[in-house]
Amino acid sequence: MPKSGPLLLWIPILLSLLNISCQSPTTSISVSPEVLDVGIKTSNDSIFGTYWVKNTGKNPLRISQIETDCDCLIPNIPLKSSIVPGDSIAIKILFQNPQYLGFFRRVIEIHANVDNTPKVCLFLGEIQR
Question: How many CB atoms lie within 10 A of CB 67?
Answer without folding.
Answer: 13
